[in-house]
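[Meeting: bench + compute handoff]

Bench side (C.D.) handed over the final construct sequence. Compute side (W.E.) agreed to return the predicted structure before the next meeting so the bench team could plan truncations. Sequence as handed over:
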Amino acid sequence: MTPVILYGGGPPIARDPARELARRELQKPVYHQDEPSFVERILNKIGDWLNTLYHSLTGTGGGTGGGWLGLVLLLALLVVVIAAVWWRIGSVRRNATGPKALLDHATTTAEDHRATAERHAAAGEWPEAIRERLRAIARDLEERAIVPPRPGRTADELATEAGTALPDHADALAAGIRLFDDVWYGGRQGDADGYRRLVELDGRLRDARPVPLGGRS
């Protein structure tokens, strides 16, 4: 015989349906409105972990104790965490929303960018020098109608378009763009050698002539 339960003074209800009714009743928001949210529970867990770590390192709260040594270790851990976060912020500071347009001022000339690049290079500001030299290359290609002027063009788009017009220099262009991307967006440190490579690329491209439509001449 199936056990029955009297529910609310009504007719008897079998055990399984009664259990389901109870489960549904307890799922109502009114029974959970004072419980901490998921985020609050996570924060509480993190706080408990940090508190436990602090006590285990400093020897407070009844632990075996590390005294001043534990406190020094805790401070060293915090310094490492802060340094890691700071390094990460620095490595992505230029890439918060993805690659930007290479040229942002229509009134600048290739010579303007070359002069700016040389000033940055003289100051040892290699990421800025590399960017300005690549901008000089982009503007020079536009000024000589090798690529059409187009606001918003990225460095990768420049490599594709200019590489099509100057196939003999396509690989060198792609290498120059990778150098720029690594330094400006990838957070790598630029150097004098990288800047020199872009200066040499700039010089070669200034003497280059586009392939005529329909093939090589």
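W.E. noted at the follow-up: The chain has eight helices and two strands. C.D. will use this when planning the next construct.
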